[in-house]
Amino acid sequence: MAARSLLIRKTLATVLRRDSAALGAPAAAHSRGLHTFTLPDLSYDYGALEPAISGEIMELHHKKHHQTYVTNYNKALEQLHDALPKGDASTIVKLQSAIKFNGGGHINHSIFWKNLAPVREGGGEPPKGSLGWAIDEHFGSFEKLVQKVNAEGAALQGSGWVWLGLDKELKRLVVETTANQDPLVTKGPGLVPLLGIDVWEHAYYLQYKNVRPDYLKNIWKVINWKYASEVYDNESS
Ligand SMILES: [Fe+2]
């Protein structure tokens, strides 16, 4: 059990490093030897995903929600940085949930922005090449994958994420959900996120009110499959 826990921690650390690299972590800053994070820029304007996702939602989601995760993640990391040399076990343990929640929020949202693209830049174009073939093999068709993601995303109680991931150990695609801001890796150390859809109310409520299925139906029009395909090709080779 202890060995498994150590393995998961090591894997999480690897994924955090890999995600930071993949995300281009413009991110990294150093203060007193501590690696902290900054809000990544979007590669498109806030209004560029309309009408699927309103500019108002995108601006609030990025500037306020994601920024809050970054701020609170850095705060928790700084407190951890102070507590570690003191051997302050109580504080170290107390910080774990804040690090998981806010660090997860930063990781998940950084992926989410890359999973989206304006229609004029290819948003919504179904995947071709190896990822397209893998989707057909594992789910039957692209349409069946969309149905499965939408069903699981709509059924998720409370706040969380629905993912298309690659299980590197079993070499297959999976659809998973995670609660709150848990990253996909919390469901298995070999899972790599290809596509993560935020189903927190803050991602859709201003436009879709409480009708999460409508948000899920429309988000496919701006999904950036080029990014998911690149990750798939890199991780499955
Ligand atoms: Fe969010």
Automatic annotation (TrEMBL):
Catalyses which reaction(s): 2 superoxide + 2 H(+) = H2O2 + O2
Domain annotation Manganese/iron superoxide dismutase C-terminal: ranges: 127-230
Domain Manganese/iron superoxide dismutase N-terminal: 36-117
Entries under InterPro entries matching the protein: Fe/Mn_Superoxide_Dismutase (IPR050265), Mn/Fe_SOD (IPR001189), Mn/Fe_SOD_BS (IPR019833), Mn/Fe_SOD_C (IPR019832), Mn/Fe_SOD_N (IPR019831), Mn/Fe_SOD_N_sf (IPR036324), SOD_C_sf (IPR036314)
Keyword line: Ligase, Metal-binding, Mitochondrion, Oxidoreductase
Compartment(s): Mitochondrion
Sample GO molecular function, one term: superoxide dismutase activity
Entry-linked Pfam families: Sod_Fe_C (PF02777), Sod_Fe_N (PF00081)
Protein name: Superoxide dismutase
Organism of this sequence: Stylosanthes scabra
Record gene name: MSD1_2
